[in-house]
Specification:
The protein is an alpha/beta fold and 221 residues long. Helices cover 42% and strands 16% of the residues. Helix 3 packs parallel to helix 8.
Length: 221
């Protein structure tokens, strides 16, 4: 990740292309989403609230934070954790400031789990009783599409959470990779990246929400 971020700086300099924070953010406007994504958040949030559950959404990505922040769906996320640059006084990128790789991703799961959302908050390493953690791992649903998600998937599933390996529809290679993660026991299900109402992802997540709501009722019976 450090290498690609460095190469982007060098290539932009060689081509005399603007490489400012605002340019990255504008790139977010060009993101094309999978079917159903833009309607997903309102629909699934409403469904969960009907079951007495308040959902929070997060991005943990090896991609660039600035591009994610510029996307149409950025407003739906409570926090976005991704790689980013440091900038000079003119807003130009000068060097990678934060890099999110395979194992770094798990750090942010613990931040969510403990409620220490600020990336600079060092209290994430302090002891905290399981019952005091605001977002139990068993209440997390993790969506991933590649090998960089494997450590998070393995951890979430082992700790009682739910993992979905998504793949680009009609892409046989992507489907094969997602199926392999399922066969290896890394994820609970694999599904084409279609977030429309009634599709596999929609049905599965609603069933997970139902289970979490039922478990809570039994615990408090």
């Amino acid at each position: 990740n450090l290498s690609y971020m460095r190469c982007m700086l060098e290539e932009a300099k060689a081509r005399k292309v603007a490489f400012r924070r605002e340019d990255f953010v504008k790139c977010g406007d060009d993101i094309t989403f999978f079917k159903g994504v833009e309607e997903w958040f309102d629909r699934i949030n409403t469904y969960a609230l009907q079951k007495g559950i308040r959902l929070s959404h997060y991005i943990i990505s090896s991609g660039l934070e600035e591009i994610a922040l510029g996307s149409k769906i950025a407003k739906n996320f409570k926090q976005i954790y991704a790689s980013s640059y440091m900038y000079d006084e003119y807003g130009a990128a000068v060097w990678p400031a934060r890099v999110v790789n395979y194992t770094d991703k798990t750090q942010y799961l613990f931040r969510i789990n403990k409620g220490c959302l600020d990336p600079l908050d060092k209290s994430v390493n302090s002891p905290m009783a399981i019952e005091d953690r605001p977002v139990p791992f068993s209440h997390m649903i993790y969506f991933g599409d590649g090998d960089t998600d494997v450590p998070c998937m393995s951890m979430i599933k082992r700790l009682g959470g739910y993992c979905i390996s998504v793949f680009q529809p009609y892409n046989k290679k992507a489907k094969s990779r997602a199926e392999r993660l399922f066969e290896e026991g890394r994820v609970n299900i694999f599904a084409p990246a279609d977030y429309s109402a009634g599709k596999k992802i929609d049905r599965y997540v609603k069933n997970v929400v139902n289970k979490i709501a039922s478990d809570a009722k039994l615990t408090n019976f």
